[in-house]
Design goal:
The complex is a heterodimer of chains A (272) and B (324).
Chain A: H1 20-36, H2 40-65, H3 77-81, H4 85-106, H5 108-115, H6 119-152, H7 165-190, H8 193-213, H9 218-221, H10 225-231, H11 245-269
Chain B: E1 2-11, E2 14-24, E3 29-33, H1 40-47, E4 55-60, E5 75-78, H2 90-100, H3 106-115, H4 130-142, E6 148-152, H5 160-175, E7 179-183, H6 187-193, E8 196-201, E9 204-210, H7 211-218, E10 221-226, H8 230-239, E11 244-246, E12 252-255, H9 259-269, E13 275-280, H10 283-291, H11 319-323
Parallel strand pairs in B: 3-7, 3-8, 5-6, 6-7
Antiparallel strand pairs in B: 1-2, 1-4, 8-9, 10-12, 10-13, 11-12
The chains are: A mainly alpha (272), B alpha/beta (324).
Chain lengths: 272, 324
């Protein structure tokens, strides 16, 4: 058992001449290997897809059967089909939190940072893999939710070629990615999985929705990361809207950037 | 080679590592000793760039850790609190590590065989025993075929066979010319493995010496005598300039004496000796002696008979033998 298979000291290391680009591609490869060798992320992504499509289908079905758009406002068929995002985004929050929080919980973060001591490279690799995976699944989710939803809207639906529709669907595909990256940043800042989930899940599931219903602050809640992003799922301008779809998307992107930046500032300085 | 120069790390006002300077050289096993809380694990985290020093620096093979382009191929480490994620198989765990440093995938199977985990390679590590987890950590350290290996408490949770295995492994790695730096609180184990010692207390360097020298310098060696007629022998010893000190258990202890000379004196006076045994303090005692003032956490003292480990099993030199 103690047969030594090591090949000798001072042998030219295989990764000996890695520049930063080489380090990044190696780190992305490592993160990709990590994410697909545990079950959690797979189930998260599947749960997100199913929740988004199923709840959207349900809402579309009932809306189609009892068509009654709110008085004085144009009907939003795309946003209706994406109604399931309220639930589906929670799976993205969990995925983003677990991806880094799980490493802190197990202590594996030390191994990760010993393997990739350039913390910028490590963080970028993690965000890249998370972004790519959620975007790929997000595209499938979005188009499925859209077509299923429009079919069930029973004549009140729209087609991809109608004005603003493709844009709205693409936002629907991008939205889960943005939420998961936002969660990644928050979890990196807090470095505690349970704490991050304890803050983010109620925020996305309850707080944002409750605040929205309080008369005085409705306008302000439109600037929250989820509300602003979902604004871009609309194809019409509603009278209550404070900004247009692209501005909404931009606001969410800024939230994500701030969160990732916060995570970076913590990761860069703190002891692992 | 690991070079530490004035390495300092504070947590709040409390220095965990305090101006630590020493060089861990290749070709031998260097034991890293210190009481709990002395700063051993912190030092190891500083070496790996996981913690940032507040002062000084540490170089691995002449470079700061974060300047090593593929660090796992230079230094492999087993840290106490860096576990694998339980949901991943042992093989997949090593696979992501290998890929992060462009180490060929075949090394994964090689190190799994080397640590004896080949049969459970595809099992999730959540089901691993403490010892198997430790072997997986050692496999990770060896993955990049590094010239420096660093183990924090490697025998934790290993069974006797595993302990023997890791002892052989570390000696083998050193014999191949690698730098082996290992911390342990098991003195008996360290005494068998290490060639050289670095001892710290409260973050400061207490000793950086070869093992033999450390024990000689810090251990108290004496001869234990048990006799029904001490007075006569004590006189004889006094004449020789030797002082016998009475021990609580009724024996007498003589420092700096040759047992053969004492036996001869006893024979001259016709004193019967029930016991005559040379006592050499163990590494453990030498360590306790040195770090007596440096212990961070100390249990309340309890009245206990003094205990010294004899060089061999207590050799009760019988009277007949001694007086012959």
């Amino acid at each position: 058992m103690s047969t030594t298979v090591m090949t000798g000291v001072g042998r030219a290391a295989p990764g000996g001449e890695l520049g930063v680009a080489g380090q990044l591609s190696a780190a992305v490869n490592a993160e990709w290997t990590k994410i697909r060798t545990v079950r959690g992320p797979r189930w998260n992504l599947l749960a997100g897809l199913v929740a988004t499509v199923a709840l959207g289908a349900l809402l579309s079905y009932f809306m189609g059967r009892n068509y009654s758009p709110p008085a004085g406002a144009p009907f939003e068929p795309v946003r209706t089909a994406f109604g399931g995002l309220v639930l589906g985004q929670l799976a993205m929050v969990v995925l983003g939190v677990m991806l880094i929080g799980g490493e802190y919980t197990s202590g594996m973060i030390r191994l990760s940072l010993a393997a990739v001591p350039n913390r910028g490279v490590f963080y970028l690799a993690k965000a890249t893999v998370l972004g790519a995976v959620t975007l790929a699944v997000g595209l499938v989710t979005a188009f499925t939710a859209f077509f299923v939803g429009q079919a069930l809207l029973d004549g009140h639906g729209v087609s991809l070629g109608d004005p603003g529709v493709l844009r709205a669907v693409l936002v629907g595909a991008l939205y889960p990615t943005l939420i998961s990256l936002f969660a990644l940043g928050v979890a990196t800042m807090l470095r505690r999985q349970t704490l991050a989930l304890g803050i983010l899940i109620p925020f996305f599931f309850l707080v944002s929705t409750i605040l929205q219903a309080i008369p005085g602050v409705t306008r302000a809640t439109q600037f929250l990361p989820d509300q602003a992003g979902q604004r871009a799922l609309q194809i019409h301008h509603q009278t209550k809207d404070a900004f247009g779809p692209l501005t909404g998307l931009l606001i969410t992107v800024l939230w994500v950037a701030a969160s990732l930046l916060g995570g970076w500032l913590v990761l860069r300085r703190r002891d692992a | 080679m690991i070079e530490m120069c004035e390495l300092t790390k504070r947590y709040g006002d409390k220095p965990a590592v305090d101006s630590l300077s020493c060089t861990v050289r290749p070709g031998r096993v260097t034991g890293f000793l210190g009481p709990n809380g002395a700063g051993k694990s912190t030092t190891m985290r500083l070496i790996l760039g996981l913690d940032r020093p507040d002062g000084g620096r540490v170089l691995v093979d002449g470079k700061p850790y974060d300047r090593l382009p593929a660090p796992l191929t230079r230094i492999g480490a087993l840290l106490e609190a860096s576990a694998a994620q339980g949901g991943r198989s042992a093989r997949d765990h090593l696979l992501w590590l290998a890929r992060s440093n462009r180490i060929p995938d075949r090394r994964v199977d090689e190190v799994l065989r080397e640590v004896g985990l080949q049969d459970v390679a595809r099992k999730r590590s959540a089901g691993f025993s403490l010892g198997m987890g430790q072997r997986l950590g050692i496999a990770a350290a060896l993955l990049g075929d590094p010239s420096v290996v660093m183990f924090d408490e490697p025998v934790n949770g290993l069974d006797p066979e595993g302990i023997l295995w890791i002892r052989t492994l570390m000696k083998g790695l050193a014999a191949e010319g690698r730098t082996v730096f290992v911390s342990s609180h098991l003195m008996s184990e360290m005494a068998l493995t290490a060639d050289h010692l670095v001892v710290i207390g409260r973050g400061r360097l207490l000793a950086d010496v070869p093992m033999e020298e450390f024990i000689d310098r810090n251990a108290r060696s004496f001869v234990r005598i048990r006799t029904p007629r001490p007075e006569s022998l004590l006189d004889a010893l006094a004449v020789e300039g030797l002082t016998a000190v009475s021990a609580p258990d009724g024996t007498w202890e003589v420092e700096g004496a040759d047992p053969a000379r004492i036996a001869a004196l006893a024979a001259e006076r016709g004193v019967v000796l029930d016991e005559l045994s040379p006592q050499r303090a163990s590494l453990e005692e030498a360590f306790m002696q040195m770090t007596a003032d440096e212990v961070e956490y100390r249990g309340a003292p309890r009245a206990q008979p003094r205990e010294t480990t004899p060089e061999t099993a207590t050799t009760a030199t019988t009277a007949t033998e001694a007086t012959r």
